[in-house]
Amino acid sequence: MSKLYELLTDLATNPQKQAAFAQSPTAVMDAAGLTEVEQAIVKSGERATIIAAFADELPVLSIAFREPDPDPSPDPDPSPAPDSSPDSQPSEGI
């Protein structure tokens, strides 16, 4: 797990870390051990740029959280076709 991921997770879950980051973002990122490139990514505030920083890690996460046995049919499952053979009509008055 990258230091950037750890810091972002900590910021999302730790109110004290959030307050410290609001006061001095550079000090918090330095303490977390982020590189200058990682700090620039965070400072950009661009969602796509931040997501791109995890491009190498996302396939692993998607494999870990994929549905183990997905339903191959479309949802909702299609209704059975009506029986249209002439033998299927009810007989009258036998």
Question: What would your notes on this structure say?
Answer:
Residues 84-94 have a biased composition (Low complexity). The structure is a single chain. Helix 1 packs across helix 2 (15-23) and helix 2 packs across helix 3 (25-32). This protein has a domain at 3-64. It starts with a helix and ends in a 30-residue tail after the last helix. Helix content is 53%, strand content 0%. It is elongated and about 75 Å long. It has 94 residues and is an all-alpha fold. The longest helix has 11 residues, at 3-13. It has helices at 3-13, 15-23, 25-32, 36-44, 47-52, 58-64.
List the helices and strands and how they pair.
Blueprint: H1 3-13, H2 15-23, H3 25-32, H4 36-44, H5 47-52, H6 58-64
Helix pairs in contact: 1-2, 2-3
Q: Nutshell version of this structure?
A:
Helices cover 53% and strands 0% of the residues.
